[in-house]
Amino acid sequence: MTDQLPEPTPIRPGLPRRRAAARKKVSADSGPPADEQALALARRIVDLAADKKASDIVLLEISGLTTLADYFVICSAVSERQLGAIADGIVEALREEGTRPIGREGSANAHWLLIDYGSVIVHVMAPPERDFYQLERLWSDAPLLLRLQ
Q1: Residue 85, CA atoms < 13 Å, CB-side half-sphere
Q2: Going by C-beta distance under 8 Å and a sequence separation of 6 or more, which residues neighbour residue 146?
Q3: pLDDT, tens digit, for every residue of 66-97?
Q4: Of 120, 134, 142, nearest to 14 (Cα)?
Q5: What domains are there in the chain, each with its CATH number?
Q6: Binning pLDDT at 50, 70 and 90, where does residue 48 land?
Q7: Contact status, residue 77 vs residue 125, Cβ threshold 8 Å
Q8: Measured between alpha carbons, how far is 137 from 139 in angstroms, rounded to an integer?
Q9: Least C-beta-crowded within 10 Å: which of 5, 14, 91, 135?
Q10: Least confident of 28-37, 38-47, 56-65, 78-87
Q11: Order of strands across the sheet with 71-76?
């Protein structure tokens, strides 16, 4: 009887990359590597947030600091209605493109919505909550890839 290793689980788009996945060779027809897919998703989320008039949009690369995700997108909204519209706009547009969130936490009346896409986590916050929690300061070691005022 031979000991067989279990089949490796396939990499799902949207999930954070892992060290073993980074060493795995990718075939030419499988599309861009997972980290390029994650960055493309993060940039698409930034564009969608900007389309909904989000303010102070920040894109941080956190992959070197944690396995939680590869990127954070943090943005602000001035009202509860706009908080909901930004989050809903991101989720609906990406769903039409075939990407669904893993989870969604918070509510507009809580002034902080979080959308989890695995490799990208989106924070939509009201300015007072953003000033209080200071996520950019908490993750200050993460490279700042983009800031839209």
Answers
A1: 12
A2: 43, 46, 57, 58, 59
A3: 999 999 999 999 999 999 999 999 999 999 99
A4: 120
A5: 53-148 (3.30.460.10)
A6: very high
A7: yes
A8: 5
A9: 5
A10: 28-37
A11: 103-107, 112-116, 120-125, 71-76, 55-61, 144-148
